[in-house]
Backbone:
């Protein structure tokens, strides 16, 4: 089963489910990294750990879970450095 992406009225391109799956995980990982980066910025500038403040301290299970998810996202995003450009961007040559 393939996902269909409509880039314009003339061309319909099919993307395999694996690419859609990776694209989804890439976006989730980047969102978590943005959250982690903003949190570290707040720690550095204002000495405020927003995650710890929101979820009951840095040692709480929920805060630790978020920290672990951000770390896993960082490891996942390392793969973005080694992927070919064709896998990261849609082919726009048909436009």
Residues:
């Amino acid at each position: 089963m393939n996902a269909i992406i409509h880039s314009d009225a003339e061309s319909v391109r099919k993307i395999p489910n694996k690419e859609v799956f990776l694209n989804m995980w890439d976006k989730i990982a980047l969102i978590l990294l943005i959250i982690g980066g903003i949190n570290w910025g707040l720690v550095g500038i204002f000495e405020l750990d927003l995650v710890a403040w929101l979820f009951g301290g840095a040692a709480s299970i929920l805060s630790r879970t978020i920290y672990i998810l951000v770390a896993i996202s960082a490891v996942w995003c390392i793969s973005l450095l080694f992927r070919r450009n064709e896998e990261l961007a849609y082919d726009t040559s048909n436009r």
